[in-house]
Design brief:
Helix content of chain A: 40-55%
Number of helices of chain A: 11
Radius of gyration of chain B: 31 Å
Number of strands of chain A: 6
Largest sheet of chain A: 6 strands, parallel
Largest sheet of chain B: none
Distance between the termini of chain A: 31 Å
Largest interface: A-B, 60 and 47 residues
CATH topology of the largest domain in chain A: Rossmann fold
Number of domains of chain B: 3
Distance between the termini of chain B: 17 Å
Helix content of chain B: over 70%
Order of helices and strands of chain B: HHHHHHHHHH
Oligomer: heterodimer
CATH architecture of the largest domain in chain A: 3-Layer(aba) Sandwich
């Protein structure tokens, strides 16, 4: 009971420190735990793998710094996959703050594979408009919306862009999503123009994307840092996704243990209260309250 | 190199400042928070100006005029005017003018939304829910286990445990689910009863679960009739389906939040300590 009393009055900051320790220690070792590939990530990999060399994949960076930890490793892994297969990349962004994150990833991945800006990839930058833009790209064509890239270079100065007029020349769209843009891509570009879509999404919204996968509206789904780790495993390039998995696993174990302890504490506290004040079991004083707590006092 | 080190130090300091809120609210945290909001807003404005307003309006106007496309050039006056009309919100006397571009945005949004939602969401999802409920005999999957457990649990609850536990719902539910699980493990996984496995595999269990869960969830949101009797049972199954969905979302959310912490810790260890402190020190000494 003493242990439970101590647990019940435990300062929340102790839990923060525990989580921090459990997170940091595995990161220092950078080990690669065994990763089991889920069917949805395998589908995403297979779909991107079927794009022929010289084909075009469009990436939409629809996130910002708040989801960088989950989606940037995913973007890096998919860019590496594309560049390794000599697939050309067009990058755009539906979120203004996503554009620089996308460019950072492009620069980094392109340097690894000696890819040249303009010849192998291009960043056409951010455009507002959401669903109107997506429908417009399919109907009116790229040049109504993107005459220049994010640096002001005419997009037609990139030879492969001269053949791109609408979604018909895009082999896949990879939407990296931390908000509603993924739904828009599926509902407008996918459903109305037949654009083949792969989604990489932040963990918070992964479950809401499964209906699209089941209805075959998307060709693959990569969810959260776990999805990024699976994709890194598939391309045999361990990086931030895989390195984070040990921390993720240990923190999950810690959370489960804390949830069990919390419930046990709550259960015994409630049982002690039921036995009544003055009896063997007084309340164990959750949150630093006096044993019995205010509930046992007569309001009159 | 020096620029990278300085920017890494600034980012690390701000990360620690934000995390310091976990200890308690403090001026350093508030400074970092305000800086984040301010810089994000400023950066967004800059991106809007240089990526969109300038090239799409001013740049295109000049390009079209030079190319002799006078109509296309002058038509840009319309979006520019609509954009300026939005700013009238700051002048109370003429604030009503901003309703015109807002109305246009809402109208376009609604028009696109109706078509998009029907073609892109309602019809494909309806198609995705119209699933075959029978299979040719084959392998058993996770869904078959769930289905078998649910069937046994429901039967044993109604016929046995409700009476044995004298109406204690919690214990009756617990024992009925346990009995379903135990029977599945014993009959299907250990004894591998052939006819039972074949009979079970004929049912498209995953599809059946999806169809029942969808119908039950819709029943739950039907409020024009009291949730009693068979309708009540369907509605309760609907609640269970919604709760399972919320549980999965919550699990993913926990994972996502831990991922964000991992991202920051990874930055502090790799980019700041190793590359921003240890590497320069090694370079110097």
């Amino acid at each position: 009971m003493k242990l439970l009393k101590w647990l019940a009055s435990l300062d929340r900051r102790v839990i923060y420190v525990l989580v921090l320790i459990v997170t940091i220690i595995p990161l220092i070792w950078k080990s690669s735990p065994p990763i089991e590939i889920s069917p949805e990530v395998q589908m995403a990999y297979n779909s991107l793998d079927k794009v022929p060399a010289g084909g075009i994949v469009m990436f939409s960076i629809d996130y910002d710094g708040a989801s960088e930890a989950e989606l940037q490793p995913m973007l890096m892994a998919m860019l590496r996959h594309c560049f390794a297969r000599n697939v050309r990349v067009i990058m755009t962004a539906q979120w203004p703050l996503g554009m620089p994150l996308g460019q950072m990833a492009l620069d980094s991945a392109a340097a690894e594979f000696d890819k040249v800006y303009g010849a192998d990839y291009i960043n056409v930058g951010y455009r507002p408009g959401g669903n109107a833009l997506m429908v417009g790209l399919g109907k009116s064509g790229f040049r109504q919306y993107f005459l220049r890239d994010f640096r002001g270079m005419p997009i037609d100065s990139a030879p492969f862009m001269r053949t791109v007029h609408n979604y018909g020349q895009i082999d896949r769209l990879v939407g990296l999503e931390a908000g509603a843009s993924g739904d828009l891509w599926v509902q407008y570009a996918g459903a109305q123009f037949g654009l083949r879509i792969i989604l990489g999404v932040a963990g918070v919204m992964a479950t809401s994307m499964y209906p699209y996968l089941d209805a075959k509206q998307i060709e693959g789904l990569v969810g959260g840092l776990r999805g990024a780790a699976e994709y890194e495993t598939l391309i045999s390039h361990p990086h931030r996704g895989i390195w984070g998995m040990n921390s993720q696993s240990y923190v999950h174990v810690l959370i489960v243990v804390l949830v069990i302890l919390g419930n046990l504490t709550f259960y015994f506290e409630r049982r002690a209260k039921k036995k009544g004040p003055g009896g063997r079991g007084q309340g164990i004083g959750v949150g630093g309250q006096a044993p019995g707590g205010p509930q046992t006092q007569n309001p009159a | 190199m020096l620029g990278t080190i300085i920017s890494t130090w600034i980012a690390a300091t701000l990360t620690i400042a934000i995390l310091s809120f976990l200890y308690k609210d403090n001026p350093l945290y508030r400074f970092a928070e305000h800086l984040y909001v301010g810089v994000s807003a400023a950066f967004t404005v800059v991106i809007f100006w240089y990526q969109d307003v300038w090239p799409l309006l001013v740049g295109n106007f000049g390009d079209f005029l030079r190319a002799g496309n006078k109509v296309e050039a002058w038509i840009l006056i319309i979006p520019a005017t609509l954009g300026i009309m939005m700013w009238t919100r700051f002048i109370p006397k003429v604030a009503w003018v901003s309703r015109i571009p807002l109305g246009l945005i809402i109208g376009i949004g609604a028009g696109l939304g109706i078509a998009g939602t029907i073609h892109g969401l309602v019809l494909p999802q309806l198609r995705g829910t119209m699933l075959p409920l029978a299979n040719p005999p084959g392998e058993l999957g996770f869904g078959h286990g769930v289905l078998f457990t649910i069937i046994i649990a429901v039967l044993s609850y109604v016929l046995l445990f409700r009476r044995l536990t004298k109406g204690n719902q919690s214990w009756a539910t617990f024992w009925s689910i346990l009995s379903g699980l135990v029977l599945y493990i014993v009959l299907i996984e250990i004894l591998k009863v052939g006819w039972l496995r074949t009979a079970l595999s004929v049912i498209a269990a995953d599809n059946l679960i999806i169809v029942v869960a969808v119908i039950a969830t819709i029943l739950y949101f039907y409020f024009s009739r009291e949730h009693k009797g068979l309708f009540g049972v369907g509605s309760r199954i609907g609640i269970a389906a919604i709760m399972i969905s919320f549980g999965a979302s919550f699990g993913y959310t926990v994972m996502a939040r831990v991922s964000l912490l991992i991202g920051r810790c990874s930055f502090l260890i790799n980019d700041w300590i190793l590359k921003g402190i240890v590497a320069p020190l090694r370079h110097i000494f």
